[in-house]
Amino acid sequence: MTKMEKQIKQFLDFLQNEKKVSNNTLQSYSRDIYQYENYLSQNRINYTKVDNKKIQEYLKHLQDLNKKTSTISRNLASIRSFYQYLIRIKKMKYDPTENIQSPKIEKRVPSVLTADEIETLLSQPKNVDLKGTRDKAMLEVAYATGMRVTEMISLNIEDVNLEEGFISCKSAIKQRNIPLGSISLAALKEYIRNARPIMIKNEDEKSLFVNVNGQRLTRQGFWKIVKFYKEQAHITKDITPHILRHSFATHLLQNGADLKAIQTMLGHSDISSTQVYTQFQDAGIRDIYKRTHPRA
Q: What is the CATH number of domain 115-286?
């Protein structure tokens, strides 16, 4: 193991144990830093001798590999964090990424489903078997709460309050309580009372949503379920669990919900992440503007 590899391992341990980053974030850092280490190794560059110019050359290298702007930006952030950690533990005296600007990322308009498309999608799972009951509850909860995939599959049975009608969504550093509507609450009650007890193989199983083996459902499993019902519904749009999240936020805003409340429910730390949905706030006003404003 090289010196840099040892430092990378210590850095990742620091992120996991002290910073308490999520597993997905940890994997991103690991992938970015090891890719950077591989580049330095191939070009016989000592990681402690890197300067501003060398970092720029690496970013150009990523560009030449046709990496997306967002990927390059994330790589720079990962490398910057690594060097700041090395400064912190006194293995470096300067940060070679200092004054290097992240490439500008265009904010993409999130894809959303119409209310009719949501209605069609959510009507697909039937309570005729255990899997259908689980899928109905999952899709209803995903749309009712706007939770991320990782948050959905990380839910434990204790995170659900059926009496008060809300779900506690927990991360390493914060928790938010998200209300459930009457339809999603009814679907969840049906699953918890009549399907989950049969699906779990072990009474000690804590996971809320389980697979056919009675174990915690994976991200891939959730994606497959959404894809299956999209095809059943004959919806041509690409649908992912994240699009259910976008649709949740957009429909709330279109129906008059306060942006700050939506930010809280989505778990956005910055309001600017939530503001991207304002462009869907009133499609009618936007259409009128386009038709009537002389410079629209």
A: 1.10.443.10
